[in-house]
Amino acid sequence: SESKKRTRKRKRTKKKRMRSTKRKTSFSGEAAFCSGFLLQCSLYLEMQPHLFVTERAKVSFIISLLSGRALQWAEALWNAQSPWIHSLDGFVKHFREVFDF
Known about the structure:
The chain is mainly alpha-helical. It has a domain at 53-101. The chain has helices spanning 2-20, 34-47, 55-64, 68-79, 88-99.
């Protein structure tokens, strides 16, 4: 029926909008890009709160965007189950101490 077609079209449109907000930026550890990277992450987390319900999920998202020495640093924290990976504020504070000089 016509209403079913409209419902399917709305679902496809919503999926397209969600895809357009996917992040592709990465951070490798360069101090000049630290604040901008964290701002972009913060904005994305704010725009998609339903995707990142826990603090750990938010930190995991940021770590997933790291590369190079920044990823190596985060990998060490993750593997050691550091307390920093369970708090977004703590992780960002520590991140800035390491990369925003």
